[in-house]
Amino acid sequence: MHLAVIRGRDRVVASLILAYPESVREVTDIGETILHLTVKSENGCKMLRGLLEGFKYKEMLNWKDEEGNTVLHLAAVRKQHEVIKLLLLQPELDVNAVNSNKLKALDILLKGPKQSNDQEIVEMLHLASTPKADNQELPEQSQADETVIDVDTKGKYSTSKMDTANSLEWLGELRSGLMVMAVLIATVTFEVALNPPGGLWQDGVPAGSNITRLMNSHRPGKAIAGETSPNSLTWFMVWDSIGFLASMSIIVVLTSPSKLKGNTTRWKYIRLMMWVVIASVHMVFLYGVQITTASNIFKRAVIAPFVFFYGVVGLLALRSGWSLLTEWCDLFKELWTKKNR
């Protein structure tokens, strides 16, 4: 994990976190967290932004290495201004944390070599570390500049609260969308189960009748496809039932009283059921069209497009999987080489 972060292998890191979420809490021999290592990464800002999206362990923002440096200290030492701006958007960040030398990130910037764009970061850190009542103690500057900086910085810090609100709003919209989709699919699968493709017999021998007809033994209300295409109808009903039950289970999970935010198990289950629903809809469509369409037309007009579509999707999936496998192989080679030195 740590080597993948330093090398900037964001896809490998994402797959590792997905497989082993607790691995993000592991530290190096000198106490550096995965967040510390993003600052040393080849694409640190991109890596850090990806980690902070949906990051559950925000307290790690203030974890210190053996020298007492937080990730903010390390970003200040390396003059990584974009990383500092990104960190300042996190409400859990302790801007006033000091390292073993009793230095804040602001002190490190002020004492270190100066760069042309240091002033903006210094002012942002100063505002973040100073109570609002003391904001008048900013370095001297024109009233106009002060107004611009104050408005701009407050806007940036309010972004974190807005992001949280937007995240909750997005979560509610996602839940509503999933509910609508699940109800719609449950309704459709229920309807086609009662009215299968090919229609129902309208005539025939009524149930319970003693009349025997050798040439017309079907009963009213039974599926015509049950006699004309029994195998296809059987599989049609199997996949329709799977889709109905999967969509109903999504409805049950979404309407249960426990929290959705942060409950990864429930979201994983919903995602799994979504794939089941998608697969069942595909199969219901195929068997339904097979029942109502001539064999030669079915093969040309339905099977051929499906084969082409999934062939393209399969190639894209293989390409993506091969790229990820290559990254994993490179990472394991680096680990093996480092271990055997």
TrEMBL record:
* Species: Theobroma cacao
Listed GO CC annotations: membrane
Segments forming domain PGG:
169-289
Q: Where in the cell is it found?
A: Membrane
The name on file for this protein is Ankyrin repeat family protein isoform 2
ANK repeat segments run 67-100
InterPro entries found in the cross-reference section? Ankyrin_rpt, Ankyrin_rpt-contain_sf, PGG_dom
* Statement: the UniProt record of this protein carries the keyword DNA repair: no
Q: Which UniProt keywords apply?
A: ANK repeat, Membrane, Repeat, Transmembrane, Transmembrane helix
Q: Which residues cross the membrane?
A: 176-194, 236-257, 269-289, 301-318
Topology in membrane? Multi-pass membrane protein
Q: What is its main location?
A: membrane
